[in-house]
Write a structure and sequence with these properties.
mainly alpha, MetI-like fold
Length: 258
């Protein structure tokens, strides 16, 4: 007995309608038109700004002062060395700020009357350093600590300046982490406790992972601000990128004056 072969099922390929084809063609044309308009507007704006700047009376002096290729090559090694210091400060201080700020945030969210002193100290620290200008904190740490002549206290301006950055930015980052922790719904913690996790385990495995994911954008904002403020360590004598450029500029002025 033979079995008849089943007839092959032929499926027609999808063919878009004329209206859909026309709609997609219109969208592509509109996109090309918008891109062309944006490019033309950008070029016109750039050309106008170029003509305004280069046609100003002081352009020749400005070009010699700020756009000199010769002095740029002279200053590049020192500026790059100073920039390397800025990047090292960002890496070390950024890691310390994240760890210390997270500890402060956790301390502020501890429950129970037994943790009241910890919460009070963390709150006082956060409020104080958030209200203290960074430049004042730098001056206090960089010049105040060495003046005390304490045993084991370094006088390195880079270390002291980095410490001041950590003190200030930890207070800001702590509030970011605390906002993330408090944004997690209490039912998450309650569900974790009902499964047998302790309070510490619920915080570590349930609350903190969700909180950290939610506060990544504001943390990046704080790290960008930290990178810009690393240049303030130059007030203690540390040669960062900006201070190195100032040194080269002063030397160039002396050479021209001589």
């Amino acid at each position: 007995m033979t079995l008849d072969k089943a007839p092959a099922v032929h499926e027609d390929a999808y063919v878009p309608s004329e209206r859909r084809i026309a709609r997609e063609r219109y969208r592509r044309a509109r996109t090309r038109r918008a891109t062309a308009i944006a490019a033309t507007s950008t070029l016109v704006t750039g050309a106008v700004l170029f003509l305004l700047v280069t046609g100003s009376p002081g352009w020749t002096r400005t070009r010699e002062t700020f756009f000199s290729a010769h002095y740029a090559r002279v200053a590049l090694p020192q500026v790059m060395e100073g920039l390397w210091l800025n990047l090292r400060l960002l890496a070390v201080c950024g890691a310390a700020v994240l760890v210390f700020g997270l500890l402060l945030a956790v301390a502020r969210t501890l429950r129970g009357p037994v943790f009241f002193p910890v919460r009070a100290l963390a709150t006082a620290y956060t409020d104080f350093f958030r209200g203290l200008p960074l430049i004042i904190c730098l001056l206090m740490v960089v010049f105040g600590l060495p003046a005390l002549r304490l045993e084991g206290v370094t006088t390195d301006p880079v270390l002291l300046g980095g410490g001041a950055l950590v003190l200030t930015y930890s207070a800001y980052v702590a509030e970011v982490f605390r906002a993330g922790i408090e944004s997690v719904h209490p039912s998450q913690r309650a569900a974790a406790r009902s499964l047998g996790l302790s309070s510490g385990q619920a915080l570590r495995f349930v609350v903190l992972p969700q909180a950290v994911r939610r506060v990544v954008p504001p943390l990046l904002n704080d790290l960008v601000s930290l990178q810009k403020d690393t240049g303030l360590v130059s007030i203690a004598g540390a040669v960062d990128a900006v201070y190195a450029a100032q040194i080269i500029a002063s030397r160039v002025g002396d050479w021209r004056g001589g």
